[in-house]
């Protein structure tokens, strides 16, 4: 059974309440429960933090024994050299995901410090971005 971590960064704990026209009305916990049912043959683990160091610590923790990481680093995508370096330093492949199409948003969101070290990037498909990332590990 494959073991996949879904790792969410800052402000993603507000899904379901934060800007529902962009991010939808479903909480991530509700969505995660549906993913676990749909992908019952995969050991899915979920972790969210608003703290950059906790995201790095989690990458270090799973980065040599999980089969994949699906990472939505939120705004840290565009600011955190440290998260990019953490991904470069681990063996577990990471797929960068975004709910919104970051390339249709503010210019600063067009740069990712994660993408150069990621297996791939999926953006703009709402919560389905996570499901598409999961499919990449099958």
Outline the secondary-structure elements.
Layout: E1 2-8, H1 20-23, H2 28-38, E2 42-48, H3 52-62, E3 68-72, H4 81-89, E4 94-98, E5 120-123, H5 128-135
Can you offer a commentary on this structure?
There is one protein chain. This protein is of the alpha/beta class and 138 residues long. The chain has a single domain, classed as Rossmann fold (3-Layer(aba) Sandwich). 31% of the residues lie in helices and 20% in strands. The protein has 5 helices and 5 strands. It has helices spanning 20-23, 28-38, 52-62, 81-89, 128-135; strands at residues 2-8, 42-48, 68-72, 94-98, 120-123. A 5-stranded parallel sheet has the order 2-1-3-4-5, sandwiched between helices. The longest helix is centred in the first third of the chain and has 11 residues, at 28-38. 30% of the residues are buried. Homododecamer. The active site is at 23 (proton acceptor), 98 (proton donor). The record marks 18 as: Transition state stabilizer. InterPro entries: DHquinase_II, DHquinase_II_CS, DHquinase_II_sf. One of its GO terms (molecular function) is 3-dehydroquinate dehydratase activity.
What's the architecture, going by CATH? 3-Layer(aba) Sandwich
CATH structural fold name: Rossmann fold
Largest sheet: 5 strands, parallel
Widest sheet, order of strands: 2-1-3-4-5
How big a fraction of the residues is strand?
Answer: 15-25%
Spatial shape: globular
Count, helices: 5
Number of strands: 5
Terminal CA distance:
11 Å
Mean pLDDT: 92
What is the CATH domain class? Alpha Beta
The structural domain count equals 1
């Amino acid at each position: 059974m494959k073991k996949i971590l879904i790792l969410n960064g800052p402000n993603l704990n507000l899904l379901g309440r934060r800007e529902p026209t962009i991010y939808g009305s479903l909480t991530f916990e509700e969505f995660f429960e549906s993913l676990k049912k749909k992908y019952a043959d995969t050991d899915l683990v979920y972790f969210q933090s608003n703290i950059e160091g906790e995201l790095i610590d989690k990458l270090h923790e799973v980065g040599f024994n999980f089969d994949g990481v699906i990472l939505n680093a939120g705004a840290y995508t565009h600011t955190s050299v440290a998260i990019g370096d953490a991904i470069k330093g681990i063996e577990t492949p990471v797929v960068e995901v975004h709910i919104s199409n970051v390339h249709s948003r503010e210019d600063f969101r067009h740069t990712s410090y994660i993408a150069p070290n990621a297996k791939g990037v999926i953006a703009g498909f709402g919560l389905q971005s996570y499901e598409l990332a999961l499919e990449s590990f099958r």
